[in-house]
Request: fold
Amino acid sequence: MNRNKLSTKLILVFCFFLIGILFMLYKPDNLTNVYNGYYTFILFSYFLVGGAFVFCITIKGIYIFEPITMVMPLTIITFSVEPLICIISGDTTLLGFEVFEGCYKATLIYMVASLTYLFGYFTKIRTSNEKKVVEKEVTIRNKVIVNNKKKILFLAYIFWIVGFSVQLLDFLKQGYSYDYIFSLGAAGSFEATESSLGAITNIRFFMLAPLLYLDLYSDKKALKWTMRILAILLTMLRTSRWIILIYILSPIVLHYVKEKKKPSKKVLIPTFILSVFLIGAMQYFRASIRDGSGLDSLGSSGFSVSYIWGAFQLNFDLFKTLYGAVVYFPGEHAFTLGKQMIFLTIATIIPRAIWPTKPISVIEELKANFLGSGAVDGHWAYAQLTEFYIEFGITGVIVLMFGFSKLCKYLIKLCKTNNDHNLIIYSIMFPMLMQLVIRGYMPNNFWSVIFLLLPIWAINIIIRLKWKR
Reply:
């Protein structure tokens, strides 16, 4: 075995046990019998799920940009680590609403779901014949790409301009001035209106993929950076943290998967710190950018390292949503059986101008009942497992997590084809997994993915059709 790989695995195993031991040592002495039981059971889940994860990647070996390296750590932190931290710090309610009553059942669901994901992820179902067909198809596609790079770049520019124009137009319809937009609220004016492009604003996602094509095929660095900065500025004004992270992480992923290399610590550590900072900063500016203070609020005493860390940690507090859900469903309310993940996902893309009475999220309508009014007022999101459970119960969680594991396996297949279209899809989807895991709103997630990938599919189809002629 390569000495570096062995060293990395040893460090991983050491860190896993160190974290577990620290939680054992720092268990509060003044816990009631009830919370002592919660703490012990959650700690058991850490060793079970975390141990299974570490065992699998130690035996099987994985690449740092494999989907499992995004999915499992986020899931373990959300449902094992963060609950323990909350008990230690005494933060056991959701804005005053007690949810820990659902600890045992929710933690059990999380353990079953995680083990199901691991089983599905490491189960091979593709035959050797299928592999040969895939390799032949990739060879054809690579030849098409090599002969059409200039045409691909032209189409990439078109898609970026369309996405940028739609986003800019939507802001103008909402009452933002040009100065307000490009100064992030520090100048200009903003007169709020009810006007918006609605579902059409999803076209703004067209801006991302073209930038990755430019990273591969264009040597015009100044133009590439100008386009990327403009896209990020508009995205910041929408205060959409997850898509900003994808803008930052996707070119990094693309570079390393294209070269089949792994990043050094000098790249990983600054990228992680920047990501944490951006999550905290975007949380802080969520309201200030829109109310006109914008970048001026950087000097506020409220913006600090502790605030940034608190905002980052808040993303993992979403375990409380599953705790609340298992108490309320199905005892107080029947499972919603696809009303959100299926029906509302289909309905979401239909503009309200066509369907004025289009329904809203059924989970949002019920949120106050199982999470309290504070969750509604604070616009609390919910984790992937929470949505799965509310829609289809424990059985649904198992089936959907298995399906999710196969989606991740499919992404690995795309990555290994070494086809540029597929690599760009993978470079977008890898960081997108973070959003899918910790933000369980299928109507938004589904259409975000579709519009992020549409330019890639369109460019691929257009170029192949012209090449065949």
Notes: Residues 256 and 263 are 7 Å apart (CA to CA). The chain has a mean pLDDT of 85. Strands lie at 93-94, 97-98. The first helix runs from residue 3 to 25.
